[in-house]
Amino acid sequence: MSGQAKKRIVVLGAGSVGRRHLRNFAFLGCEVSAMDPNAERIAEVAKEVSLKNSFFSLEEVLKNAKDFDGAVVAAPPKFHINQALELLGNNIPILMEKPLAKTLEEAEKLAESMKNNPAKVLLGYTYRWWPSLIDLRSKILSGEVGKPLRAEFNMSAHLADWHPWERYQDFFMASKDLGGGALLDESHWLDLMIWFFGMPGEVFAKIGKISDLEIDTDDNVDMIISYENNLQVSIHLDLYGRPHEKSIKITGEKSSLAWNFENDLDRNIMFMGLAEDFLAVLGGEKKIKCGVPDGINVLKVIEAARRSSLGGKSEKVT
């Protein structure tokens, strides 16, 4: 950050991803503060990074709004839109963790509020910052596989293994009310699909809970997604699989491409890239790479999938 004033960043939510953001922004030379209603979480993160300030409510943060150049919304999805509206109302640009919101209706409320506001919201679909996935997209767009005919996205990872330091039943992912579950949290894969191929035409989906996990949200998602150019996409997401698997296969008229998580393990690379982009956005050096419109597009597919699963038939993405 040479030649620039040290950026002052506040992170809302000191859970796993919030702590990662705090570490990364501190590493990048920022002055960091944290907000979490859980005092134990604040105490834990204070052992890892030097906090300028600690807050236990959004109200406390907003009273000090002038002290921040940017904010990271890393709370559960239930709180995303209300926190974003409050922050933007105080002219604080946002790095928003995915998904943008629990529902399309909530997300559109945010978009409406931004129409006459030069607000900045960078949405953290972090896989867009993963070098191997950037390379995969470049190969698709350059025509290396020819016309894409089929794409397969697979994510299978047992929820109890995600945060071994806590009971998975206490993790927001176990709560429908907080915005957990495979469909919302793993919407990375829908964002990647749209990033690679654009918006689809229709979706057939089955969403439910089929395992013995002690959660009240979905742990299994299967989707067949159709494009107007005849591309067929299958997406499978689950929270019960062992060993863990994250993979993509693209089959085209010329050849095929494959990507596998196991060959690319340093996840923090993408989070650092996201943080660096946010600082560049704050400095006026870069445009938003992934923003509110992208989050709304993902939620349009999610809403179509929800309708399809309830009705047992394909649904248009509208």
Spell out the key features of this protein.
alpha/beta, Rossmann fold, Dihydrodipicolinate Reductase, domain 2, 2 domains, 7-stranded mixed beta sheet, 23% strand
Word description of this protein:
- The longest helix is centred in the C-terminal third of the chain and has 20 residues, at 292-311.
- This protein is an alpha/beta fold and 318 residues long.
- The strands form two sheets. Strands 12-11-7-10-9-8-13 form a seven-stranded mixed beta sheet. A six-stranded parallel beta sheet has the order 3-2-1-4-5-6, sandwiched between helices.
- It folds into two domains: 8-126 and 268-291, Rossmann fold; 128-263 and 299-316, Dihydrodipicolinate Reductase, domain 2 (2-Layer Sandwich), CATH 3.30.360.
- The protein contains ten helices and 13 strands.
- The radius of gyration is 19 Å and the shape is globular.
- The model has no long low-confidence stretch (mean pLDDT 95).
How would you summarize this macromolecular structure in one to three sentences?
33% of the residues lie in helices and 23% in strands. With 318 residues, it is an alpha/beta fold.
What's the layout of helices and strands?
Layout: E1 8-12, H1 16-27, E2 31-35, H2 39-46, E3 51-55, H3 58-63, E4 70-73, H4 80-89, E5 94-97, H5 104-113, E6 121-124, H6 131-141, E7 148-156, H7 182-185, H8 188-197, E8 202-208, E9 220-226, E10 232-238, E11 245-252, E12 256-260, H9 268-282, H10 292-311, E13 315-316
Parallel strand pairs: 1-2, 1-4, 2-3, 4-5, 5-6, 7-10
Antiparallel strand pairs: 7-11, 8-9, 8-13, 9-10, 11-12
CATH topology descriptor of the largest domain: Dihydrodipicolinate Reductase, domain 2
CATH architecture of the largest domain: 2-Layer Sandwich
> How is the biggest beta sheet arranged?
7 strands, mixed
Note poorly predicted spans.
none
State the distance separating the first and last CA atoms: 42 Å
User: Looking at this structure, what is the CATH superfamily of the largest domain?
Assistant: Dihydrodipicolinate Reductase, domain 2
Q: Which percent bin holds the helix content?
A: 25-40%
